[in-house]
Design a protein that fits this description.
Layout: H1 3-7, E1 12-14, H2 28-37, E2 40-45, H3 50-55, E3 65-70, H4 77-80, H5 85-92, E4 97-106, H6 114-131, E5 135-140, H7 143-153, E6 160-162, H8 169-177, E7 180-184, H9 195-199, E8 207-209, H10 231-242, H11 246-261
C-alpha cells in the first residue's frame, strides 16, 4: 500500500444530518470542508417540515453527495395538520428523494397530539411502501407504540431505520425482526448511557452511522454543535465496541447505507 493510499480517509456516510438549519448558516463551507477531509462524503438529509425540503436545495460541495428525504417530523405534525398526502407523495415519487422522513413518534415534548402523530406515521409508512423507499423513524419515549405501528404496517416490503437508536437489547432485536436498520449516533459514545453495551450486541450488517447534526454531539465534544465530520468519532467508538478495525466499520456501515437507501 502506498503512503497516499494509507493517508486517504475511508468513505463514510452520515445518514441523518440537518445541514440546512440555521446553526450552520455562518460557517457551512467550513463544515463541509471538514466533512470531506474526514472522509464523510455521503450525507443524507431528513426533512423536518415543508420549509426544510426547500432548504436542502441550497447544499452543494464538489466532493460530497447529498441525498434528500421528504417527511414531516412528529414534533411538526400539529403545525401542518392535516399532513398533505398529495404534496408529500409529489416529492417522494421523484428520484432525487431517496427516503421517507423523518417521521415517527415523540412523547417527550408533548403528548397533546399523539393521535395525529400516529396517523402521520401510518401515512408515511404507506407512502414508503407505495414508493419502495425506506422510512426514517424518530422515536422519543414512544418505543412500544412506534414498533407496534411498524408491525401493523409491515407487509414484507417496508424497510427503514430506527434513527438515533437508544433502545434495549430486546427492543433492538424486535426492530431488526421488523426489518429495520439501527442508526448509531453520538449517544453511543456517552458514558453511562448504556447504549454502547446494546449496540455492541447488534449485528454489523444492520448498523448505519449518523450524527443528527447539529444535535447529539458525540464525546469528547458534548455540549458543542454537532457536524458531519464527527461521524469519524462515532465510527472509531463503534470499532472499539465491536472489536474490529476502523476500516471495517467504515466499509460495512457505508455499504449498509447504500443498500438501504439505494444510493
Amino acid at each position: 500500500m502506498s503512503k497516499k493510499e494509507k493517508d486517504t480517509p475511508k468513505l463514510l456516510a452520515d445518514t441523518h444530518c440537518h445541514l440546512y438549519l440555521k446553526q450552520f448558516k455562518e460557517d457551512l463551507d467550513d463544515v463541509l470542508a471538514r466533512s470531506a477531509e474526514a472522509g464523510v462524503k455521503k450525507i443524507y438529509l431528513p426533512a423536518i417540515d415543508w420549509n426544510s425540503i426547500d432548504a436542502m436545495e441550497n447544499l452543494n460541495h464538489p466532493e460530497i453527495s447529498f441525498h434528500k428525504m421528504a417527511g414531516i417530523h412528529p414534533c411538526s405534525v400539529e403545525e401542518v395538520w392535516p399532513v398533505d398526502e398529495e404534496k408529500l407523495f409529489s416529492y417522494l415519487k421523484r428520484d432525487d428523494f431517496i427516503a421517507v422522513g423523518e417521521t415517527g413518534l415523540d412523547y417527550y415534548w408533548s403528548t397533546d397530539f399523539v393521535d395525529g402523530q400516529k396517523r402521520s406515521l401510518h401515512l408515511h409508512c404507506e407512502l414508503a411502501k407505495e414508493t419502495g423507499k425506506p422510512v426514517v423513524l424518530h422515536n422519543r419515549e414512544s418505543t412500544k407504540d412506534l414498533l407496534d405501528i411498524i408491525e401493523e404496517e409491515q407487509d414484507g416490503t417496508l424497510t427503514g431505520v430506527w434513527h438515533c437508536f437508544t433502545g434495549s437489547e430486546d427492543e433492538g432485536k424486535r426492530a431488526l425482526d421488523l426489518g429495520l436498520h439501527l442508526g448509531v449516533g453520538g449517544v453511543s459514545t456517552f458514558k453511562n448511557a448504556g447504549v454502547d453495551r446494546v449496540v455492541a450486541k447488534m449485528p454489523m450488517d444492520k448498523l448505519i452511522l449518523e450524527t443528527d447534526s447539529p444535535y447529539l454531539t458525540p464525546a469528547p465534544h458534548r455540549g458543542e454543535r454537532n457536524e458531519p465530520s464527527y461521524i469519524k468519532l462515532i465510527a472509531e467508538n463503534l470499532a472499539t465496541l465491536k472489536d474490529i478495525s476502523f476500516d471495517e466499520v467504515a466499509e460495512i456501515t457505508t455499504k449498509n447505507a447504500i443498500e438501504l437507501f439505494g444510493v
